[in-house]
Amino acid sequence: MSDKTRFHFTGICGTAMGAVAAAMQQRGYTVSGSDAGIYPPMSDFLRGAGIVLSEGYHEDHIPADAEVVIIGNAISRGNPEAEAALDRKLLYQSLPELLKEYFLRGKRNLVVSGTHGKTTTASMLAWLLRHAGRDPGFMIGGLPSNLGCGAHFTDSPFTVLEGDEYDTAFFDKRSKFLHYLPECVVINNIEFDHADIYDSLDEIKLSFRRLLNIVPRGGRAFINGDDANCLAVAVGAPCPVTSVGFDAGCGLLIENTNYESSRSSFTLGGEAYSLRMTGEFNVRNAAMAAAAAAFAGLSAAEIRAGLEAFDGVARRQELRGEVNGISVIDDFAHHPTAIRLAVQSLRQRFPGARLWVLFEPRSNTTRRAIFQHELAEALATADCAIVSAIPDLHKIPANDRLDPLKLAADITRHGGQGWYLTEIEQILQQVTSAARPGDVIAVLSNGGFGGIHQKLLTALEPV
Question: What's the CATH fold of domain 318-459?
Answer without folding.
Answer: Protein-Tyrosine Phosphatase; Chain A (3.90.190)
